[in-house]
Structures are given as C-alpha cells and as structure tokens.
Structure prediction request, 94 residues.
Amino acid sequence: MQFTTDDGYIIKEGSKIFYTGDQANVEGNFVVAKIQPCEFYKFKVKLQEEDGGEDRTFNLSPANFDSGIGRRFKPMELTARRRNEVIKKFKRRK
Prediction:
C-alpha cells in the first residue's frame, strides 16, 4: 500500500522518513515498515528506527507530511534536497 502527500511525495513501505519528535517521542530516522487503512484517519503507519531501535505506529493522513510549521513527518528525500539547496546557496556567497 502507498499514498501520495499533497506535496507530491510517494510514501510506501521502505520509504525513509525523518520524524521531528514531540514531547513524548524522540526524533529520528525511520523506515516505513507497514501501511494499513485506518477507519478514523487515512492510514495506520508502522515506522521502524533505522538504527534498530523501537518500532512506532502512528495514525496518519497525507496532511501529516505537508509543508508547514506543524509538520512532524518529513520524507528523507525532501530533507536531503533542502540540505543540498542550503549548501549550494552558502557556497555561492563565498
């Protein structure tokens, strides 16, 4: 199973996600292990920590991945692309 975020990123099993954390959960890099339909939210997504830590399950919708101030889930592809853009801008300033 897979879904597409409003920003156009495809989230599927095996996708790498950066979770920004919250008061109860630590941030980290995760891999999508399983996506299931959810009655109340759009999907139930099981994430596995890349370093072999604990698995976490979240009830999510594509909106949880949208750009914005409250976004806690970021596709790693997006994180890497933004990092490269910042590096290029910094190098141009020199």
